[in-house]
Amino acid sequence: MSRLAILGGKPARTTPFPTWPRHTERDKKRLLEVLESGNWGGFPFPNQLAREFAERFADAHGARYGCTVVNGTVAIQVALQAAGIKFGDEVIVPAFTWDGTAVAVLHAGGVPVFADVDPDTYCLDVDAARRAITPRTKAILPVHLAMRFAAMDCMKELAKQHGLAVVEDCAHAHGGRFLGRGAGSYGDLGAFSFQTSKLMTAGEGGIVITSRLDCHEMTQSLVNCGRASESDEFGKRPVGGNYRITEFQAAVLLGQLEQLEELTERRQRGAALMTSLLSGIGGVRALPAQAGLTREAIYHYVFQYRPPDRGVSRDLFAAALEAEGIPCDGRFYEPVYRSDLFQANAADFPQLRYLREEEIDYRRVSCTVSERAAYEESVWLPHFLLLGDEEDVRQVAEAVEKVMKHRHELAASDEELAGVKSMSRSERPRLEKKNY
Ligand SMILES: Cc1ncc(COP(=O)(O)O)c(C=O)c1O
Fold first, then answer.
1. 265: CA distance to ligand 1 center in Å?
2. Distance 197 CA to ligand 1 centre (A)
3. 137-140 and 181-182 as β-strands: parallel, antiparallel, unpaired?
4. Any ligand 1 atom below 6 A from CB of 143
5. Tens digits of residue pLDDT in 262-294
6. Is the CB of 101 inside a 6 Å radius of any atom of ligand 1?
7. What are phi and psi of 265, to 5 degrees?
8. Which atom of ligand 1 is nearest to the CA of 73?
9. Is-contact 108 85, C-beta < 8 A?
10. 68 CB less than 6 Å from ligand 1?
11. Which domains does the chain have, with CATH numbers?
């Protein structure tokens, strides 16, 4: 078991891990029922299963209302609009996240302002967020990244001091709780994604949850072509689009919600074991336990590559680990301001120049912790590695140990071997057939 697989040795793991997504017989039955009912679409709005799912999902996360939408990006966009974001308003977002977090701000007419993340959670750092506030700031958009939460108590306090809205990007946090409160229920609104790789999925989809009736009504109207919301107490008539989901998606999501509790616990158990095993391996560091995190939602198990020497890059480490049969990633996200999927300029988004002497140039932004996390340090293991048994987790840790122990054998071939792992986001999907 000594020669590294990337150099031609036998991989540490040769059998497949549990697959994702998964479904049950009940899902098949529900889907068939929708098919045969002929009631397929999102209209009348909300349709039967979409309504049932939205209510149950919101309730499971401690919010009063839920409104399903086509995907997570649109969920963030309409949540921001419902929170009152208008053309030119600044929204503080963490630099280390999926590009869609910031793209949603642009599509809502806002200006994303990047702030750095905390080195132990990789979530928006409250002091960095404070420093990013200007007279134009209207909202904070923390992301609960991978397996940690933004410190929502501090975020809320900061928002209160400055009269800002808080919209939580919970694309990674289904079922998670911070200080006893469900993801998305701490802020004014919470936005979730149900894209294939997520902890609950219908292939695509999203939901906005809130306990504020004014926000819920606005969300419903925005999602349903501007029509009146169900309760219509606030009587607003925004210009909306058709962002409704189908009953097929809602049927699948009901099944996903039924499994969430059990799978969340299973992932937590696996993660606890992983953390204890990694603690015995030199040169890697599990993320420290987070105060206030009542229940982990583990979208990816993230650990840090911190070798005592600089011979082998994180990208090469991740490539070698993957060759051992462990699905993983190093450059999962780039700081959004450096991502080639985020080429935002004022010609396309005039709010970046609105009432400013100079247009915002994102290439000048620098967030040290985000850059270190993205390019040197973070290693991402997808959640389905934790859905099997203890032996799966042990084999992942053994593979990490094997690569760490033998990494010096890789030093000479860094550039060549790490090729795919260090490519930009837009190039990679052509080369990799992963769904995460
Ligand atoms: C942190 C984060 N925010 C937003 C999104 C956008 O979700 P979607 O892909 O459903 O539009 C994603 C998912 O890709 C995400 O990971």
1. 23
2. 10
3. unpaired
4. yes
5. 999 999 999 999 999 999 999 999 999 999 999
6. yes
7. -65, -40
8. 11
9. yes
10. no
11. 25-255 (3.40.640.10)
